[in-house]
Specification:
The protein has 13 helices and 20 strands. Among the domains are: 98 residues, Udp-n-acetylmuramoylalanyl-d-glutamate--2,6- Diaminopimelate Ligase, Chain: A, domain 1; 114 residues, NIF3 (NGG1p interacting factor 3)-like (Udp-n-acetylmuramoylalanyl-d-glutamate--2,6- Diaminopimelate Ligase, Chain: A, domain 1, 3-Layer(aba) Sandwich); 73 residues, Alpha-Beta Plaits (2-Layer Sandwich). It has 433 residues and is an alpha/beta fold. The strands form 5 sheets. The protein has a 6-stranded mixed sheet. Strands 3-14-11-13-12 form a 5-stranded antiparallel sheet. A 5-stranded mixed sheet has the order 6-9-8-7-20.
């Protein structure tokens, strides 16, 4: 899971270089990538947010992928570096996108910028919280916060009105009135390599870590059309028609040398352009007789996805695993369900984790121990019956500790004049009494 920092996107490179003032020396692009951080043993390795390619379910055996962008969680430059000026909101959003692309979030999730002030103002202070509550909003208002990054989206389901009787709508109104922007990353932080789930599984120690539910790259073009034309003139005419049906963009095209049967053509198109493109080709005699349609599969993004499975380098007992996770999460109590036939001295060699409510990801995974925030009564019973022990911390307690890690990663990518703090008012609503 450890990868070096390379191919740093020019958007972030130019942003960093524009804001960094050195003391009598220049900073090269390579200098922006530093050794591994002591904050987290697992630096994030991120896919490009704007480029993706597809594997083919056809006779092609390989498809080149855009090289992944790798970031180190270490400090990109020294604390002594002098930086000037606050950042615009859009610049902060660019940094957040590079740290955890929103394309990694689950399709059902509501991530990104949720509240945007009508009057643009520089971002001088950023507050990180797991949940946006009344107490956290009061904290944000007191510190004159410009941007709240709330891991859980305070606005999730569609709303038809903004009224005071609904507590989430009330918080959105307060944010608008105070000119505070609200951003939520949620499952993009869960999925990204080096994110919440990698942090969570790291509490047990080092091991061979794999993703339980693999993230897939986005693909703007989902279909491949193969056909034959008789001449270059016919090819030009056909391509002009296809271009009109695919948003005015020129389709990706490959042409093989003509033979006795004509010129062999292969083009890609999007879902929305498939039907009109096929209709256009059917109007031409030669293409209509040779047309074949292939479905393009989205490529997996190694290291990214929901949940993690760790084969520990040094197996531990259930009792030791409990103590390690208490220390890692900063908790004095956890809830334990011992697997059938297991004891506190039973060995834990494999552990499956999923931050938050993890049953949908963990169910069916073979492991000695499940670690998540919450599972239902019957989900726990199912795991125990299969001999898997379950360790529960309550929902947000399995996520909140990552905020301090992310604060370090974000703080070194914004000017010194921008304050990044973790909320002191944020806490899990449940307590052991």
């Amino acid at each position: 899971m450890l990868t070096a920092c390379r191919n740093l996107p020019w958007t972030i490179l130019s942003l960093t270089c524009r804001r960094v003032c050195t003391r009598g020396s220049s900073i090269s692009p390579s200098a922006l990538c530093s050794p591994a951080s002591t904050v987290s043993p697992i630096p994030p390795s991120l896919p490009s947010p704007t480029h993706s390619h597809s594997f083919l379910t056809s006779r092609q055996t390989s498809v080149p992928l855009h090289p992944s962008v790798h970031f180190s969680s270490a400090r990109s430059f020294s604390h002594s570096t002098q930086c000037w000026g606050p950042m615009e909101l859009k610049e902060v959003l660019q940094v957040l996108e590079q740290l955890a692309p929103l394309s990694l979030a689950e399709s059902w999730d509501n991530v990104g910028l949720l509240v945007e002030p009508s009057k643009s103002r520089p971002v001088k202070s950023i507050l990180l919280t797991n949940d946006l509550t009344d107490a956290v909003m009061q904290e944000a208002e007191t510190m004159s916060c410009d941007l709240i990054i709330s891991y859980h989206p305070p606005l999730f389901r569609p709303i038809k009105r903004l009224v005071q009787k609904d507590w989430k709508q009330r918080l959105a109104i307060r944010a608008v009135e105070a000119g505070i922007a609200v951003f939520s990353p949620h499952t993009s932080w869960d999925s990204v390599k080096g994110g919440v789930n990698d942090w969570l599984v790291g509490g047990l120690g080092s091991g061979q870590v794999s993703v339980l539910s693999q993230a897939l790259g986005g693909a703007s073009h989902c279909h491949k059309l193969e056909f034959t034309v008789r001449s270059a003139e016919e090819l030009t005419a056909v391509m002009e028609e296809l271009k009109a049906y695919d948003g005015g963009t020129t389709p990706q095209l490959s042409v093989s040398r003509p033979d006795n049967s004509g010129i062999h053509v292969s083009v890609t198109c999007s879902d929305s352009a498939l039907t009109p493109s096929v209709h256009a080709l059917l109007r031409h005699t030669t293409p209509s007789q040779s047309l074949s349609i292939l479905k393009l599969e989205k490529p997996p993004l190694p290291g990214h996805g929901q949940g993690r499975l760790s084969v520990l380098d040094q197996p531990v007992t259930v009792a030791t695993a409990i103590q390690k996770m208490k220390s890692h999460l900063g908790l004095s109590h956890l809830r334990l369900a011992l697997g059938w036939g297991q004891t506190l001295e039973s060995s834990v060699r494999t552990a499956a984790v999923c931050a938050g409510s993890g049953a949908s990801v963990l169910t069916g995974v073979k492991a000695d121990l499940y670690i998540t925030g919450e599972m239902s009564h019957h989900e726990v019973l199912d795991a125990v019956a299969k001999g898997t022990s379950v360790l529960l911390s309550d929902h947000s307690n399995s996520e909140r500790g990552f905020l301090a890690v992310f604060r370090e990663r974000l703080a070194v990518r914004v000017p010194d004049s921008v304050t990044v703090v973790v909320s002191k008012a944020d806490r899990d609503p449940l307590e052991v009494v």
